[in-house]
């Protein structure tokens, strides 16, 4: 273990964390094996700060751990009952805002929203369900788009724009009317530039964007978050990559 | 090779707009506004065509179009009538007028007439609280609505009389200045402030600003000199001065008056800011509701250019080159947040950015940018002329100078009142003739609700800070309905970026409606506070952080207004169960006892 | 004031509203532990006992299924009125479950589609014996106050056992990995 000097360290819940300048609080925490709940963050994409699950208290002020830079000496409160209560309410908001029916979703077990809810022991969505009418777009030959499950994290927006150079997805509308739109003349995915090889096709943390023809290739019970709660998979969260090899080929083998 | 086509007629209308904006995608909000003026709405086809012409993605045009309340994707009529729906408009009877107009025109709210001629809907506060109820017709302001004026407007619409030929008295907007102090009471001498600043020099003027301890009038109260200093010292190729005239806070209308009758002060304040920080370009971001001000402001700017107060080498100072451009908003309260405003200036949906970086280092187009409020910039002219020490002596130690209050609601003389900071609430109430106030909402829907026992408090950053809104509620008012109106406002204005605000403002609104329906219980009272505990600390920007304040304040200070609506049981569904069977009854033709559900005893 | 609680058997009612009885089957999946449970509880109204209405006041009502029709509302109200604690058992009771996937459709169109005859006409039954459909399928906590939630489609026998034993011994039920599942 290298020395942790005060010039390049800060504390989370009293634990000393080393960081390299430029790292965000979330990046430094994950690198040090400390879990901070998050949904709209992915290590390969620019920080966004919209889901607010990673909100921590930094020197007494609330802030998103995914966008705030780590600074020497700051004191971060993270795994506290008050913050976890708030995070549970945020999850409940996301569950009632869309149509999340886990028993019929291919993503179940690999879904980050579900894993977060398990980990924070969310037993009920609590609030009145909006039951919105949202379309399912099956026009693309290789990819499903089911906006019923969308949590508006904009990971697909960022992956398509910044990694694929295509900007297939974009957030449109306002407030409760916000929704992801597809950049094509018809607004349909089949008419867009999206390819199954795009990173944007594989970055969705929930079951809104799914590859076709690979349903349940990995059985329920053997999926990413079946083995251990998401809070104990910090290494995975810190180092995960959006698959570059199309999931289809990988799984067909 | 174009792949999308619009009619030649439409293309001929739009081409000059594109030409004027040099087909720049960062002008998208301005282009869309002008396209809608000539085309009445922006269809998907028009959006796709614009995307091609501007060389941006179709999704980007849709994203921007669908964000702003004043842009329509479908025809909403040649006459698009919007009733301002602030609580002060409600108190002045806007709902009865709205219903009256719908009846006269045989319309449903928000739906265009069968002949595609007219639609009538509500909109957020239009800033005419001192002369409401107010409406917008194709974004032109009409004040002092009465049943008779509704009838006249219905006749004009049915007669298809062009808006430009409607009676001029409809469009009169009065200043209503009832108490003028050093800003509102001193005549403006064009050029005097700019020349005074030049005489002091860049460092000298900044020094006076520091001495003055002028703090931002938009609400947050950040020290103006610190902002300017940071912008001046930031790395960048170009610097920008943005005047935030997106006066969307319900109950605020002081910037309207400043721009209507004191525009010279505002623009000279911008020029002085540009001189100090070394900016070459300025923007006035004017809320879309104040479209009526645009021609006179453009004329004023032209006058300043010919007087050498804008343009190259202002005041004969080599290198002091500065000009101002006016951008209009399009119905989005959140654009009052400075980074959302900058996004909008860049042609995008107004979603607040992640801060830091702050605009002073990375603002418009990533360059150092000062964003100041209209009133703040007007104050700069006083400091340029009289010096910082003179200014600092007025008001209180932490809140120097004067503050303009926009007074509305239950009082005899609504309008503008300028006081030195430190004035007590009770003094303002006395001056405006509010004898029987039970509450004052200070600083708008996002501000604080004060009850009678707090009328001894003072307007100052260190006591009751305010962006200027001062809404008075008399003893006949129901403070639950005040908070419910604000909860609807925030749900409508939430930008949708972050989870707590996007979902939480809607949930809050729904619970307030449930209580209003007599379906609330103690359970809902707890829910209101539970939501506030997530909205306030968890939201991305000030909108979500303050969206629950009015509810939380009134629950604390006017709890009986809620409790008298609560059901006595421990839970009531949010909806009528019997009505939920109506569709099945209709299809089965049943009306027997088992085909109905009563409310549970 | 501080007299110890006399140990007595808890009365448990169960019902399936708009569900598939999977949660009840899962309940039976606690296998031999059913005997242990039988020593601690008496079953009142339940498909297990075939008692049609609550015979007396119950301690716990386990409710499977969402609320999709008028009869579901009556059953749920009876259970709420006669129980100290109401537990939403399984995904459908918690959030409407898969039946709630019809919620974005007009219930009238659903009926017309389902009761279409081969000749293209529709014959929607109007027998008063048949419960009328609500416009949507509702989670039970949108109709009555609910005290505890046990998600899962269905919750496993082990999960139900953990929940019941917590409840019976006076602990706030706690369901964590790997027992907490939404599918």
UniProtKB/TrEMBL annotation, chain A:
This is [NiFe] hydrogenase diaphorase moiety small subunit. Its cofactor is [4Fe-4S] cluster. Transmembrane segments: none annotated. Residues 6-82 form the 2Fe-2S ferredoxin-type domain. One of its GO terms (biological process) is ATP synthesis coupled electron transport. The keyword Zinc does not apply. Belongs to the complex I 75 kDa subunit family. Residues 82-121 form the 4Fe-4S His(Cys)3-ligated-type domain. It comes from the Bacteria. SMART domains: NADH-G_4Fe-4S_3. One of its GO terms (molecular function) is oxidoreductase activity. InterPro entries: 2Fe-2S_ferredoxin-like_sf, 2Fe-2S_ferredoxin-type, NAD-red_Hydgase_HoxS_gsu, NADH_UbQ_OxRdtase_75kDa_su_CS, NADH_UbQ_OxRdtase_Gsu_4Fe4S-bd. It holds the Pfam family Fer2_4. GO terms for cellular component: membrane. Keywords: 4Fe-4S, Iron, Iron-sulfur, Metal-binding. SUPFAM superfamilies: 2Fe-2S ferredoxin-like, 4Fe-4S ferredoxins.
UniProtKB/TrEMBL annotation, chain B:
The keyword Iron-sulfur applies. InterPro entries: NADH-UbQ_OxRdtase_51kDa_CS, Nuo51_FMN-bd, Nuo51_FMN-bd_sf, NuoE_N, Nuop51_4Fe4S-bd, Nuop51_4Fe4S-bd_sf, Thioredoxin-like_sf. Residues 480-525 form the NADH-ubiquinone oxidoreductase 51kDa subunit iron-sulphur binding domain. SMART domains: NADH_4Fe-4S. Gene3D superfamilies: 3.10.20.600, Glutaredoxin, NADH-quinone oxidoreductase subunit E, NADH-ubiquinone oxidoreductase 51kDa subunit, NADH-ubiquinone oxidoreductase 51kDa subunit, iron-sulphur binding domain. Keywords: 4Fe-4S, Iron, Iron-sulfur, Metal-binding. Its cofactor is [4Fe-4S] cluster; FMN. PANTHER family: NADH-QUINONE OXIDOREDUCTASE SUBUNIT F (PTHR43578). Belongs to the complex I 51 kDa subunit family. This is NAD(P)-dependent nickel-iron dehydrogenase flavin-containing subunit. It comes from Azonexus fungiphilus.
From TrEMBL, chain C:
It holds the Pfam family Oxidored_q6. Keywords: 3Fe-4S, Iron, Iron-sulfur, Metal-binding, Oxidoreductase. Its cofactor is [3Fe-4S] cluster. InterPro entries: Hydrogenase_assoc-protein, NADH_UbQ_OxRdtase-like_20kDa, NiFe_Hase_small_N_sf. One of its GO terms (molecular function) is 3 iron, 4 sulfur cluster binding. The keyword Lipid metabolism does not apply. Residues 20-166 form the NADH:ubiquinone oxidoreductase-like 20kDa subunit domain. It comes from the Bacteria. The keyword Iron applies. This is NAD-reducing hydrogenase small subunit.
């Amino acid at each position: 273990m290298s020395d942790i000097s005060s010039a390049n360290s800060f504390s989370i819940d009293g634990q000393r964390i080393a960081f390299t300048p430029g790292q965000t609080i979330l990046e430094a925490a994950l690198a040090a094996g400390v879990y901070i709940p998050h949904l709209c963050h992915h290590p390969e994409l620019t920080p966004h700060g919209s889901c607010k699950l990673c909100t921590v208290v930094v020197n007494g002020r609330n802030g998103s751990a995914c966008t705030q830079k780590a600074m020497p000496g700051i004191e971060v409160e993270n795994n506290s009952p008050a913050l976890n209560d708030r995070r549970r309410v945020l999850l409940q908001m996301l569950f009632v805002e869309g149509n999340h029916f886990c028993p019929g979703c291919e993503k179940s077990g690999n879904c980050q929203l579900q894993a977060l809810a398990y980990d924070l022991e969310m037993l009920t969505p609590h609030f009145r369900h909006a039951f919105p009418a949202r379309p399912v777009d099956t026009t693309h030959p290789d990819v499903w788009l089911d906006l019923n499950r969308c949590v508006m994290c904009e990971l697909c927006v960022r992956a398509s724009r910044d990694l694929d150079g295509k900007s297939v997805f974009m957030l449109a509308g306002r407030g409760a009317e916000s929704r992801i739109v597809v950049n094509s003349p018809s607004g349909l995915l089949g008419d867009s530039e999206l390819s199954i090889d795009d990173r944007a096709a594989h970055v969705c943390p929930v079951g809104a964007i799914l590859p076709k023809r690979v349903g349940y290739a990995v059985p329920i019970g053997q999926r990413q978050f079946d083995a251990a709660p998401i809070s104990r998979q910090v290494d995975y969260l810190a180092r995960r990559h959006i698959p570059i090899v199309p999931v289809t080929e990988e799984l067909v083998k | 090779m174009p792949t999308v086509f619009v009619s030649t007629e439409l293309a001929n209308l739009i081409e000059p707009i594109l030409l004027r904006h040099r087909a720049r995608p960062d002008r998208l909000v301005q282009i869309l506004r002008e396209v809608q003026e000539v085309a009445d709405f922006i269809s998907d086809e028009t959006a796709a065509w614009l995307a091609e012409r501007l060389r941006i993605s179709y999704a980007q045009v849709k994203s921007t179009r669908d964000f702003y309340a004043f842009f329509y994707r479908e025809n909403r009529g040649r006459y698009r009538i919007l009733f301002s729906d602030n609580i002060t408009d409600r108190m002045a009877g806007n709902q009865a007028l709205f219903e009256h107009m719908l009846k006269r025109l045989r319309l449903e709210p928000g739906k265009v007439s069968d002949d595609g001629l007219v639609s009538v809907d509500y909109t957020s506060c239009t800033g005419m609280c001192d002369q409401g109820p107010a409406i917008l017709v194709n974004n032109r302001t009409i004040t002092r609505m009465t049943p008779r004026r509704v009838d006249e407007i219905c006749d004009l619409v049915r007669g298809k009389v062009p808006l430009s030929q409607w009676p001029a008295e409809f469009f009169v907007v009065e200043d209503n200045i009832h108490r003028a102090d050093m800003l509102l009471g001193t005549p403006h001498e064009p050029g005097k402030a700019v020349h005074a600043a030049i005489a002091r020099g860049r460092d000298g003027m900044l020094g006076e600003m520091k001495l003055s301890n002028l703090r931002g009038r938009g609400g947050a109260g950040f020290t103006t000199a610190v902002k300017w200093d940071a912008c001046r010292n930031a790395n960048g190729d170009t610097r920008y001065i943005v005047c935030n005239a997106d006066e969307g806070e319900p109950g605020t209308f002081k910037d309207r008056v400043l721009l209507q009758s004191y525009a010279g002060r505002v623009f000279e304040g911008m020029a002085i800011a540009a001189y100090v920080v070394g900016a070459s370009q300025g923007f006035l971001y004017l809320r879309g509701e104040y479209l009526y001000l645009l021609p006179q402001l453009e004329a004023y700017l032209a006058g300043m250019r010919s007087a050498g107060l804008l343009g190259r080498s202002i005041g004969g100072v080599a290198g002091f080159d500065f000009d101002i451009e006016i951008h209009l908003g399009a119905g989005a309260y959140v654009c009052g947040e400075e980074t959302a405003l900058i996004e909008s200036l860049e042609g995008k949906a107004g979603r607040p950015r992640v801060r830091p970086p702050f605009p002073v280092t990375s603002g418009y187009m990533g360059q150092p940018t000062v964003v100041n409020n209209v009133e703040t910039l007007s104050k700069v002219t006083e400091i340029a002329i009289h010096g910082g020490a003179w200014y600092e002596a007025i008001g209180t130690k932490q809140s120097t100078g004067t503050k303009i209050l926009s007074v509305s609601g239950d009082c005899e003389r609504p309008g503008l009142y300028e006081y030195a900071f430190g004035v007590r609430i009770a003094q303002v109430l006395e001056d405006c003739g509010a004898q029987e106030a039970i509450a004052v909402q200070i600083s708008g829907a996002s501000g604080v609700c004060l009850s009678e026992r707090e009328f001894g408090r003072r307007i100052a950053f260190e006591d009751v800070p305010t962006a200027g809104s001062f809404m008075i509620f008399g003893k006949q008012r129901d403070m639950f309905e005040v908070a419910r109106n604000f909860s609807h406002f925030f749900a409508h204005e939430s930008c949708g970026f972050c989870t707590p605000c996007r979902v939480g403002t809607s949930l809050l609104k729904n619970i307030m409606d449930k209580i209003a329906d007599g379906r609330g219980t103690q359970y809902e009272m707890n829910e209101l506070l539970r939501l506030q505990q997530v909205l306030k600390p968890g939201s991305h920007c000030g909108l979500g952080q303050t969206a629950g304040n009015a509810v939380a304040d009134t629950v604390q200070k006017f709890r009986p207004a809620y409790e008298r609506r609560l059901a006595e049981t421990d839970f009531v569904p949010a909806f009528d169960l019997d009505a939920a069977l109506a569709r099945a009854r209709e299809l089965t033709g049943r009306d027997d006892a088992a085909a109905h559900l009563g409310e549970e005893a | 004031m501080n007299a110890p609680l006399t140990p007595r058997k808890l009365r448990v009612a169960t019902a399936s509203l708009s569900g598939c009885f999977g949660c009840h089957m899962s309940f039976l999946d606690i296998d031999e532990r059913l005997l242990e449970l039988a020593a601690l509880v008496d079953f009142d109204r339940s498909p297990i006992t075939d008692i049609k209405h609550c015979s007396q006041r119950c301690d716990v009502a386990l409710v499977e299924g969402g609320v999709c029709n008028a009869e579901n509302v009556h059953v749920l109200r009876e259970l709420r009125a006669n129980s100290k604690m109401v537990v939403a058992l399984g995904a459908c009771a918690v959030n409407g479950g898969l039946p709630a996937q019809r919620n974005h459709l007009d219930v009238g169109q659903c009926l017309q589609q389902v009761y279409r005859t081969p000749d293209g006409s529709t014959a929607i039954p109007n027998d008063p014996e048949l419960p009328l459909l609500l416009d949507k399928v509702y989670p039970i906590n949108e109709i009555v106050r609910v005290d505890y939630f046990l998600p899962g489609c269905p919750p496993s026998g082990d999960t139900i056992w953990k929940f019941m034993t917590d409840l019976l011994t006076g602990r706030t039920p706690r369901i964590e990995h790997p027992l907490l599942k939404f599918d």
